[in-house]
Design a protein that fits this description.
The chain has a three-stranded antiparallel β-sheet with strand order 1-3-2. It has one domain (about 20-70). Helix content is about 45%, strand content about 15%. The protein is built from three helices and three strands, in the order βααββα. The protein has helices spanning about 20-30, 35-40, 55-70; strands at about 20, 45-50, 50-55. By secondary structure, it is an alpha+beta fold.
Length: about 80
């Protein structure tokens, strides 16, 4: 018996007008927990509601815009 194919783990996008769980955020970006912690420590905001952590899309977009700007100026 052939197993059903798994859905791809990466390839999604984050829109400024949405809220996603941390699980969905890391799945869409194809990143691990270590990268998530690095992003959090670098200033990416999140909200803990109950036992789940959420990322506002606009915070993620702003984070990546600022990161790209810093890197384009040579401040890595």
């Amino acid at each position: 018996m052939k197993r059903p194919e798994k859905a791809p783990t990466i390839g999604g996008s984050i829109r400024a007008d949405e809220v996603v769980t941390l699980t969905e955020f890391v799945r869409r970006l194809g990143i691990g927990q270590k990268t998530w912690r690095t992003m959090k420590n670098a200033g990416l905001q999140s909200a803990l509601i109950g036992k789940k952590r959420y990322i506002l899309g606009r915070h993620a977009v702003t984070f990546f815009e600022q990161l790209a700007e810093r890197q384009s100026k040579g401040n890595r």
